[in-house]
Design brief:
With about 260 residues, this protein is an alpha/beta fold. It contains 8 helices and 7 strands; from the N terminus they run αβαβαβαβααββαβα. It has a single domain, classed as Alpha-Beta Barrel (TIM Barrel). Strands 1, 2, 3, 4, 5, 6 and 7 form a 7-stranded parallel beta sheet that branches.
């Protein structure tokens, strides 16, 4: 059996979607004018920014434009890489985590957010953003938009806030599998769809039964042909999943409960 989460497997996934009659749009294009049968490829660049460039080149070879969300961390932010991805006609967005970084202080968070958004707009006319899960924190970065409005910052959408996932199937490779949302605190959505996939082959085998509109989140660092890198990421994914299920999720849930109790007083 061939290894999953290689660039070859990602190429197979794209080929299967094309053969099934899907077109591709960036997140912005989808929000503004969705095609009839379409896949939106969204990439959260959490770690190893050079892996994003690798995936962007592969998609470019297919003539596909997708959306890359970058953090401001050293592992993610790279003007050189961002510029190269922009030249390949991909969309760039801000993978924000300002509420968590500012310990739930909304005023400081929105000031930080605005400054970081301006930073990314030096490279691309950013109009879409996506929260970073920051699952070790009781604060949810999306809550920033309970107090402020996307429109006031020239933004047209945020994947977790402006998409009806009863009409769009959401697939994410969190945990280096396609059912990792089961142990994720925030990289998941509410939906009436009951598809269940574990491997990329599961998706490929069922591609003709998927709905007309699909949003796929693929973390670039998950996908590699290099066997040593692949084994490292595999080991990290297993260890991180155990950490989440046995410790982090429980701790975060406890902290969230304490925070909610304090806010209710």
């Amino acid at each position: 059996m061939s290894r999953d989460f290689t660039l070859q497997k990602y190429r197979q996934l794209l080929n299967s979607l094309i053969k099934a009659g899907y077109e591709f749009q960036t997140f912005r294009a989808f929000i503004e004018s969705p095609k009839e049968r379409v896949v939106v490829l969204r990439h959260d660049v959490d770690l190893r920014n050079w892996a994003a460039l690798r995936l962007a080149k592969l998609e470019y070879s297919f003539g596909i434009s997708s959306t890359y969300y970058f953090r401001t961390t050293r592992q993610s932010y790279s003007p050189k890489i961002i510029r190269q991805i922009v030249k390949m006609e991909h969309e760039i967005g801000y993978h924000y985590e300002d509420l968590v970084i500012n310990d739930g202080n909304y005023d400081k968070a929105i000031e930080s957010f605005q400054g970081n958004l301006s930073l990314f707009r030096e490279f691309y006319p950013v109009v879409s953003i996506c929260m970073h899960g920051s699952s070790g924190s009781p604060y949810d970065n999306r809550d920033l938009w309970k107090k402020f409005r996307l429109e006031d910052f020239g933004l047209v959408g945020e994947p977790y806030l402006t998409v009806d996932y009863n009409k769009v199937l959401y697939l994410t490779d969190t945990g280096r599998c396609w059912d990792g949302h089961k142990v994720s605190l925030r990289d998941k959505v509410e939906s009436n769809y009951d598809f269940s996939f574990h491997s990329t082959n599961d998706i490929i085998d069922s591609v003709n039964s998927l709905p007309d509109k699909v949003l796929i989140t693929a973390h670039p660092e998950q996908w590699t042909n290099n066997i040593l890198e692949w084994l490292f990421v595999k080991a990290f994914s297993i260890a991180h999943t155990l950490y989440k299920t046995l410790y982090r999720n429980k701790r975060t849930s406890r902290n969230l409960t304490v925070s909610e109790q304090k806010n209710s007083k």
